[in-house]
């Protein structure tokens, strides 16, 4: 079996990535929000220049699929008209910011966007990112980010280097300059490291002042009403353009869910999940075959087949190859496609040593019934 190809960068709009169904064009919505005009516009462009399928990524970005090299340029022009395109590929690559969907959009999100757009901003590694998690309670602690703004136990702002249990007190006025100073410290210290938690885990010592205890996240996202509007899930983070066009003003999340602002009832669409007990919410499945060129089998068809067999206590990751894009961390149960059925990995990642191999669908259903 060929080892999966590691591309080492996240796709953008200006720097799309080729997949089995064409170019993946990733839009990074400013401040984690899209207006009604933008959601409708993106849906129309997906139908016109892509294949009518829209993804929500684990970094709270929106992806158009099925774009061709010929349709990419007119698509970018149209997205620019919707104020969704960065001035350059370098700025787009740096502007990895996830924003809490709760409360007002923090001023820090605007300020950080502005700071990362400056020519002297640090040239951060492609996957390096920021989380503005400044609502009353942290909600983004499991989302991928290297530098975080959160509130401590007293509700004061702290700057957190990912992987640490303590942060540095900062003020609203200086939180972004402090975040950039931490980013510059990372760049000066990192050697070959691309991520903050790995650098610190390998023994790097932060500058002074990072001693204030963080809150621990207790929030678990589920579809349903919130003070800001209705949250709905998307099976495998994917939705049709027709459904996307009806969402109105939305806030993006890294949970494969969107928050429809001011909305009390989610529109009914097959690709929207409104029942918090829907087992599809507990299955993570990457694109798989045929839309990912590296996939060794279908993943999402299998997920829908297995969903009714999943116990309420079980969560499942299904990966089309050993790369494990959709869930790079360990999961209680992972099914990894091979050239010959699926491997079952327990408490591990897609590429880890399996507990069982060459499983058929019936074998898998039996294994789920025996697993906790
Ligand atoms: S994990 Fe899935 S999406 Fe990622 S390369 Fe493998 S098959 Fe493709």
List the helices and strands and how they pair.
Blueprint: E1 17-19, E2 22-27, E3 33-34, H1 36-49, E4 53-56, E5 62-67, H2 69-81, H3 89-94, E6 97-99, H4 107-116, E7 130-132, E8 147-151, E9 157-161, E10 166-169, H5 175-189, H6 196-201, E11 212-213, E12 224-226, E13 229-234, E14 238-240, H7 241-244, E15 250-252, E16 257-261, E17 272-273, E18 283-285, H8 300-306, E19 316-319, E20 331-337, E21 342-348, E22 356-359, H9 361-370
Parallel strand pairs: 6-7, 7-8, 18-19, 19-20
Antiparallel strand pairs: 1-2, 2-5, 3-15, 4-5, 4-14, 8-9, 9-10, 10-11, 12-13, 13-16, 13-17, 15-16, 20-21, 21-22
Helix pairs in contact: 1-2
Iron/sulfur cluster binds at residues 4, 286-288, 292, 294-295, 319-321, 323-325.
Brief overview:
Keywords: 4Fe-4S, Heme, Iron, Iron-sulfur, Metal-binding, Oxidoreductase. The chain has 372 residues and is an alpha+beta fold.
Helix and strand content put the structural class at alpha+beta
CATH fold description of the largest domain: Sulfite Reductase Hemoprotein, domain 2
CATH architecture of the largest domain: Alpha-Beta Complex
Largest sheet: 6 strands, antiparallel
Distance N to C terminus: 31 Å
State the fourth-level CATH superfamily of the largest domain.
Answer: Sulfite Reductase Hemoprotein,Domain 2
Number of strands: 22
Tally of DSSP helical segments: 9
CATH class of the largest domain: Alpha Beta
Radius of gyration: 20 Å
Cofactors, ions, other ligands: iron/sulfur cluster
Q: Which consecutive residue ranges, at least 5 long each, have pLDDT under 50?
A: none
Mean pLDDT across all amino acids:
94
């Amino acid at each position: 079996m060929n080892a999966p190809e590691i591309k080492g960068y996240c796709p953008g709009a200006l720097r799309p990535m080729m997949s089995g169904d064409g170019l993946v064009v990733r839009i990074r919505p400013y401040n984690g929000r899209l207006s009604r005009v933008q959601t409708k516009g993106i849906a129309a462009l997906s139908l016109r220049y892509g294949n009518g399928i829209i993804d929500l990524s684990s970094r709270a970005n929106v992806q158009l699929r099925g774009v061709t090299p010929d349709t990419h340029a007119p698509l970018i022009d149209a997205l620019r008209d919707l104020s969704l395109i960065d001035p350059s590929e370098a700025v787009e690559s740096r502007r990895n910011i996830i924003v809490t969907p709760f409360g007002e959009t923090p001023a820090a999100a605007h300020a950080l966007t502005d700071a990362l757009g400056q020519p002297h901003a640090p040239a951060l590694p492609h996957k390096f990112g920021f989380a503005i998690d400044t609502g009353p309670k942290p909600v983004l602690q499991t989302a991928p980010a290297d530098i975080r703004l959160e509130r401590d136990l007293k509700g004061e702002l702290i700057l957190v280097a990912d992987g640490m249990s303590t942060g540095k007190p900062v003020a609203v006025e200086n939180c972004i300059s402090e975040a950039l100073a931490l980013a510059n410290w990372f760049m000066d210290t990192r050697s070959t490291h691309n991520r903050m938690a790995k650098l610190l885990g390998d023994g790097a010592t932060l500058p002074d002042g990072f001693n204030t205890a963080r809150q621990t996240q207790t929030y678990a996202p589920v579809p349903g009403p919130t003070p800001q509007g209705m949250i709905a899930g998307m099976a495998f983070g994917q939705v049709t353009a027709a459904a996307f066009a009806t969402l109105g003003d939305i806030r993006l999340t890294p949970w494969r869910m969107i928050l429809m602002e001011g909305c009390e009832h989610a529109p009914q669409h097959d690709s929207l999940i409104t029942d918090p007990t829907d087992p599809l919410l507990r299955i993570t499945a990457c694109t798989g075959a045929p839309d990912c060129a590296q996939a060794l089998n279908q993943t999402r068809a299998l997920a829908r087949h297995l969903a009714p067999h999943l116990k309420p206590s079980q969560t499942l990751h299904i990966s089309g190859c050993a790369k494990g894009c959709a869930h790079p961390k360990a999961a209680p149960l992972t099914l990894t496609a091979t050239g010959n059925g699926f491997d079952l990995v327990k408490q591990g990642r897609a590429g880890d040593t399996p507990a069982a191999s060459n499983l058929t669908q019936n074998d898998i259903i039996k294994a789920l019934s025996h697993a906790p």
